[in-house]
């Protein structure tokens, strides 16, 4: 071909111009190189009226000895638009099929025929296959099916093509390219001329990938002349000549018998600006392998090694396959290749040898079992499929696929003798039974019998199953005879489940089996007869059989039934079920007649169940107490067991014991324990103990946590300890704040503070160690450029917390700095702690980050390396702004095992969208076809969007967004996005389910978008007759309408809910009543009150809701006197209670600065105190004064109210206790009550409060008046410490 390419006479064009490719010397032309030519001007197809020279078959001289085949042309079948349900199912089905096939390919490098046919049939059943589904199926009909012969693969591909086309699938150039790839992988001989004619008839324009694969097809047959014509045409259309074309030419020359020209292609490539890469050398090595030239293979491998080019394990296996297929098995099993293969597999010892397994399968399929077995024996013993240690099962896949009976037995014996498989014959038998191969299974069982292995009756069950389903008596008899020959007599299960059901009756079975020479007087057959008669309920037949065979029916069945009933009745749920069915099956007359017996029976059951339940509770409590004591004696943590014990005691309603345990383990009390005990006290009406528990439990305020950033080191540590003591729940926001606190210290270079804080946080167990929280320590050193210190800090974090913070930044810095010694130290550490694969990925990303792409390629091509999707996606996101790094990573990972290629190209297309580079996007699409990648719908839509935004033609069918499918995710979308999707579905006449509409309405209402929510409701009502909002949506509607001021509409909706038997929520009613009060609608409030009375106490409304809001409505209307009278009546007609709270009224009046209403309400409160001894209203007013910052008014109120002590008792959690104590001391001084004053002073000291100097002076005066010594230093009088008094005149009302 080298001479041919240099010949101007043949090509009519300069060879330099023909093969000139711009760009740098690379192994593979990058996407940038692809789109630098006219292909970016959409010359990938024949357009603009330029006709192809391949339009007529006469232009293609073809040998009459060849058999040519091609896919049938498109028939242009037009089908109706699929329904919404079908399209939804189709979208879900494709996702499932793609996931299944991708998972299979990534795990095993192949797909099974069974899986592929199942997906194919499922797709066909919908009747509307998409283009992407067709592409998925076509791609899977090639080398991904190593277990099928080439011809069968191609036949399956044609069947898929024809069937999907018949069902209306639309094919574009990507489908034809995929079919070409399948033809090449299956070595199918076809006419490129006819293939192009079919494409032209279907109005599908070929692109660069099409021409490359047509060249490969000609070269596969050694037709250099045909390949040269396509090559010349590509050059005339300014299509780039890539490495793939040269690789095909190497194969073409070798198949034509010109190995010298094949080798010279490499120098032509170098002259054209393309450096030969691994694929080129692989093509040359396979060419030598087909000729059996072992010396040239060794020489070329040495050249590859000297050029520092990496060949992967699958490349070596391809050479072995070519040697074997060409009839040079002796070279394939050569010691040189065996040594190389063993080395490759030993490198991959940590991973499954997937490529080697697929090589074995391909060799078996082609009939080279011996070579496949030789490859199998090179597998390291550590790659045993079962990984059971003492029972290795190497080669299960081999035995499952091998079908040559004579060799199969030999292989089994060899595996057994070599201790590579624990039970090869048994496993092979299992495979034969699973595939319904009766003859093979029986033959294997005979071999097993000869080997002295036992033959069990159940081995034959898989063979009998199908005969039993088909009622195939002859087949059943054949299997029974085989069982007799092998001395495996059928047992009772074999007869009962597989033999007797095959015949019309037991008598017929007995007769036929007896005539066939099968024993029917065995215990197994007779027992099966008994089972059959018992199952049919034929007691007479059962009795006759027992009499004939003198069988004795055991009474153990009855005993077993009684025992079962005993255990059954111990479960309360079972008892309830039993009683329900018992009474349900009795008539009213029967119940009345046996009423007394039933009562006795119920009492006995109750005693038995309660005794059992109580015993269970007591046993659990005792067990937990014992465990708690053991842990305490050993000095181990007891918190978890203590919580379980408190929970168990509360469930048992054992309050006294629970309080005892609380007293013993005070330090283990947590918020959850306090909550359980308080609830238990409330259930036992023990208010005093409940209040004591409430006072004890004072959780730490989050304000202290939020102030961590401004604290000193010791203060921060103290607060962290306090958080642990109070068992404060640490939320995500707190973790973020902790990180910022640590990071701020890192920016200051304070590593000591960081270490202490980290040690406190993690040691106390406030949060689990994470890489994020550990990173500030490493940041200290990275910011100062100390890479050695950063590495030591990372190693320290791993030792203490098992985290490797910022390891990527450290390794990248070492690579950029060129510190090989420290880099080796880092790599050794990562490899030892996290494994070799993690180390390789860290090094790969560091090389990529620093632009060392040659070194990165060597790393990623390490034999046995698997894709790690999470890490690849992380780096792709990281370098999405760096075009070159992302392009190179996508190119380097092309052969990475398990790599999701669609995901990689999707990142590249995202970059194209960000830069609005449609030329690059189109080159990416071509590259995906070259690589035979099946794009997901999101990738196609992304690419189509880029092309459409630049007014370019989209060369494929764009999958529509399935709005009904997207509607399933309404709860996860922004309300506006979901609303836009809904409008689109409504415009197209599509209807969604009620749940989708309701979910969107709730989402819109929750965001306050009332108009859009009502629009959705209107759309739903048009599509669904009688559409009704759910309870939650209706409540949200009322709340949102109140917020928007639509009070009347909200009231109408409340009435509608009640008429529809829906239950309004407490919040909805509260918001509506408050809205009515803000509008002064007293009548509306009374109407709502009357409406909700029918609901009873179920919605738990406050008794003061309507009273308070009625008062506010009167105030709104200016009728303050009516408001005062209504509120006053609440307290004068009954005793004070916590429920009679009018704080809401006071707060609203204070917020409105309504001084007139406030004067009258405060006078009402004072009058209630002085004349009715009712302090609730005054307490509420006092608290509102404090909340609103009116401290002077609060002090004045305390002075006016005589019963200050009673007021304080009503509000034990009052925060201004020092002020209250000052006024109490004043009262005691006026009353000359020294004993009360002493008690108050002691209380103040116990609670750590500080009395003002005037109060101390008053107390000292009381001591002196009583003739006692003052026990403290008496302060001088200072007017500044005296409480202020007001000269305000109080109204008598």
Automatic annotation (TrEMBL):
<dbReference type="GO" id="GO:0005739">
    <property type="term" value="C:mitochondrion"/>
</dbReference>
<dbReference type="GO" id="GO:0003730">
    <property type="term" value="F:mRNA 3'-UTR binding"/>
</dbReference>
<dbReference type="InterPro" id="IPR002885">
    <property type="entry name" value="PPR_rpt"/>
</dbReference>
<dbReference type="InterPro" id="IPR033443">
    <property type="entry name" value="PROP1-like_PPR_dom"/>
</dbReference>
<protein>
    <recommendedName>
        <fullName>PROP1-like PPR domain-containing protein</fullName>
    </recommendedName>
</protein>
<keyword id="KW-0175">Coiled coil</keyword>
<dbReference type="InterPro" id="IPR033490">
    <property type="entry name" value="LRP130"/>
</dbReference>
<dbReference type="GO" id="GO:0005634">
    <property type="term" value="C:nucleus"/>
</dbReference>
<dbReference type="Pfam" id="PF17177">
    <property type="entry name" value="PPR_long"/>
</dbReference>
<dbReference type="Pfam" id="PF13812">
    <property type="entry name" value="PPR_3"/>
</dbReference>
<feature type="coiled-coil region">
    <location>
        <begin position="588"/>
        <end position="668"/>
    </location>
</feature>
<feature type="domain" description="PROP1-like PPR">
    <location>
        <begin position="230"/>
        <end position="330"/>
    </location>
</feature>
<keyword id="KW-0677">Repeat</keyword>
<dbReference type="InterPro" id="IPR011990">
    <property type="entry name" value="TPR-like_helical_dom_sf"/>
</dbReference>
<feature type="repeat" description="PPR">
    <location>
        <begin position="207"/>
        <end position="241"/>
    </location>
</feature>
<dbReference type="GO" id="GO:0070129">
    <property type="term" value="P:regulation of mitochondrial translation"/>
</dbReference>
<feature type="repeat" description="PPR">
    <location>
        <begin position="242"/>
        <end position="276"/>
    </location>
</feature>
<dbReference type="Pfam" id="PF01535">
    <property type="entry name" value="PPR"/>
</dbReference>
